[in-house]
Each structure stands twice: as structure tokens, then as C-alpha cells.
């Protein structure tokens, strides 16, 4: 039976980290809210269900038969071995999960650059605070996170082509997406700093060229970044603005 | 061999979620940075190690033999089955992990109430923004998260004594700690809202009375909350201030 992915329609958002894994593996999956006749209503129905015992707090979530799995890192931990995108060594799977959870934190901080105060307000209502938070993010947090990932990558005992182990995992795919998103949101800041992360950039480029990923990125299934998602391009928040 | 827990000395912080599991299970563990002769230096040595292939981004992390495991939810996913604090049913372990990751997000939001703009600055330097973020947190986020957990708890097919399955898991222990922390940081807001979450409060009280937990809470190993940790009591951020 096909995996069912549930996420907000119209944005890449957190759902994209799961999509990339499903696409790379050529897995049989349905992106439910984008199906004519199902849409976002099908997702809200589960989230508001009275009968479902394990409703998720928020999308994305995956449905595999009767099992509902929320949270990107949890979904990838579950799917990784089934899709051939997790390390074979069981203990390395906890290393992969640790890296994925660091990406999770990085994504949340990237989101908060445009929503530092109140999720229920528009960006425009917290613009000044967003500028202050973005400056700190660009100055301190991007170098801290990317520097960390570069260090882990270059010290991988199996070589610097993968974050963990000797083959592609979902962590590599998620880092590709992270760099895509940061480059969309903060093009000037990223242009300045890219030279400092050569191994990460090489990993990003290698992922983009994988046949299934390249085909996916060129397809209509890959939505464009936009200002409804996690990574938003507000030029006034970028470096030098 | 004893588990080694690494976390900042002097605060409960994120390390506390792991400590509660180790204490409940009566596990053999060392809280490394609190050991005379080891201290925080022993932790920084690992984090800055040139030789260690899988350095963590941040504490807490657990060392089990050669394996280093970072991130609370990852540590608990790993330890849960070994400590008898995870569901026996494998698919329910992903449900537990999903709940734990929702707690992780809640903890991060609780932290950001006093640091909404810049981690490298003091609270005093972002006080006004902290007040705005705390107001939104108290108004929208506490009810959203606690309401969600109450709903999951009361709909557990195995009964409302545990978050998942028919026995105590690390998720129950973490929710105990979450309620402890919120009650410390926002006593007025929590006093007002507690009546809305009777099942959660009953779970909190039941956890506090478990013999190993009660013994731990009364011991010097349980540090007091303070204004260096995640949950801080700044009366001006509480409800009605």
C-alpha cells in the first residue's frame, strides 16, 4: 500500500524533507492534500478526529496502514531503513537521528527569523524584531550550524561524501534542502559564507545531480519556495540590508 | 558499564528529561559534569575533540560505551527499551517518539519566551520582546500544547493513566517535568489554567509519587529551578503582569 504523506498544500515547508526521501527512493506515495478531491480537508479530518487515538500535533505526518507518524525526524527514522536511506549499522542510526534533530532545530530557528514574537501575527507585525533576530541568525547561528555540519562531514571516517556511514542517507538529503532554503531566504549572506563550507556544498551539488532527485526537482511536484513557507525571501532581513 | 550523561552543570535544563528516565529505572549512570575531578571540562573535551567522529552539536548527550547519542528525544528513544520505559509494541515506539518531539518543540518555545531575539544576549537586553513573546506563549501556545496532550491522554485506548500504551513510559516522565517547569516559570498562568487539564495533572501527581522519582526529587541530585535554565521565573513575564 502506498505511503500517505500529509502536509499543508502550496509550500515545501517541513514536508519537503520527507518528500525528498520518498522521491530519492522511488517510493510509492501519495501527497494527500495535493490530490484532487482530497485536499487539506483530508488532513484536517485526521487532526480533528474524535476516533483516532494518536492524532498528530501538527503536519507533516505519514500514514502507513493504520500507523500515523508525526514529526519529520520521526518519519525519517521510521522510513529510512525501509527506503534504503538509513545506515545499515544500527548504532549509526542514532547518529543519523541526532544529526536530523540538529537540522530540525536549525529549521525552527530559520522559521523564527520571520516570526520571532508571535506565530498568530503576520511577519509585517513583527518586522523590527524579525530584523534583529535575522541579524543574530546570520551572524551567529548559520556559521555555528553549517560549521558544525562541515566538521562532521569532513571527519566522517568513511569519507566526506556522506554525513554518516559510507552511503547516501536521508540526512544528506535534508542538508541539501537546508542549503537550498537558506540560499533562497538569505542569498547575500549565503553567497558570502559559502566558500567556508566546501564539503557541504559538494554534498549539496552531488544530491542535486542524483537522477531521481534531479527528475523530482524538474517536475511540478517540486513547488517553488514562497513567502508562506519556512524559508522566506524578505530582502530586508538578508545580510547588508 | 554505567551510562554517562553529559550536560551543563548547575541547571536542570534539557538534561533533566534524561535524568528522570535514568532515575525511574534505577539505572547505573554518571552525571559526568557534576563529578569532582571531571566537571564541564570533560564535556567540552568531547565536544571539541579532533578525533571523535560523531561530536554532538550541543548537550545533553549520552555515552554508552563507544556510542555518543545527542538530543533528548534521541537519547530516550535509545534508552527507552533498555530501561523498560518504552512501549513494547514497536509501532507505538514511533508514537512515543512523536509525542516526545512535540515536547521538544514545547520546551524550545518555553526557552524562547526569555530569549526571543538573540541567544548571545542576556534576557535583560531583550526584555520588551520577551514580554511580547511570553504573552503569546501564555495566551496561545500553552493552551494549544497542553490541550493537545490532555486530548491524547484521555483518548489513550489503554486508559488515561499513561500517554501511550498501558504502562509508564519516558513520555509520561517528560510531561511531568514540562508541567513542573511551566509551573515554576509561569505560576499565575498555570494556576489559572490547571483546571482545564485534569488528566494531565493527575498524571503529573502520579509520577511525582513513584518511589524512585520521589526519592530522586528529595535528593541533592535534583537541582532547584533557577534563572540559568530553560524555565525561568521572571514575574514580569507571567500572566497579569
UniProtKB/TrEMBL annotation, chains A, B:
Pfam families: GST_C_3
The organism's place on the tree of life at top rank: Bacteria
GO biological process, one term: glutathione metabolic process
UniProt KW Phosphoprotein keyword: no
EC number assigned by the record: 2.5.1.18
Keywords: Plasmid, Transferase
Keyword Protein biosynthesis tagged: no
Stated name of the protein: Glutathione S-transferase protein
Amino acid at each position: 500500500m502506498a505511503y500517505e504523506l500529509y502536509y499543508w498544500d502550496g509550500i515545501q515547508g517541513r514536508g519537503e524533507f520527507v518528500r525528498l526521501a520518498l522521491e530519492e527512493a522511488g517510493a510509492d506515495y501519495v501527497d494527500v492534500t495535493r490530490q484532487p478531491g482530497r485536499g487539506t480537508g483530508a488532513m484536517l479530518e485526521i487532526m480533528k478526529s474524535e476516533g483516532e487515538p494518536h492524532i498528530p500535533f501538527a503536519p507533516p505526518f505519514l500514514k502507513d496502514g493504520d500507523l500515523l507518524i508525526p514529526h519529520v525526524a520521526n518519519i525519517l527514522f521510521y522510513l529510512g531503513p525501509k527506503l534504503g536511506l538509513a545506515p545499515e549499522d544500527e548504532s549509526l542510526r542514532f547518529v543519523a537521528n541526532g544529526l536530523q534533530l540538529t537540522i530540525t532545530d536549525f529549521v525552527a530557528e530559520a522559521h523564527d527569523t520571520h516570526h520571532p514574537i508571535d506565530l498568530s501575527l503576520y511577519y509585517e507585525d513583527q518586522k523590527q524584531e524579525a530584523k534583529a533576530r535575522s541579524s543574530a541568525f546570520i551572524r551567529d547561528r548559520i556559521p555555528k550550524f553549517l560549521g558544525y555540519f562541515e566538521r562532521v562531514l569532513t571527519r566522517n571516517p568513511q569519507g566526506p561524501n556522506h554525513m554518516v556511514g559510507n552511503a547516501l542517507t536521508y540526512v544528506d538529503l535534508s542538508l541539501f534542502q537546508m542549503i537550498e532554503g537558506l540560499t533562497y531566504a538569505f542569498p547575500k549572506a549565503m553567497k558570502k559564507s559559502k566558500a567556508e563550507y566546501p564539503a557541504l556544498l559538494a554534498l549539496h551539488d552531488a544530491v542535486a545531480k542524483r537522477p531521481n532527485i534531479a527528475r523530482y526537482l524538474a517536475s511540478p511536484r517540486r513547488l517553488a519556495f514562497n513567502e508562506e513557507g519556512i524559508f522566506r525571501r524578505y530582502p530586508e532581513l538578508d545580510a547588508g540590508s
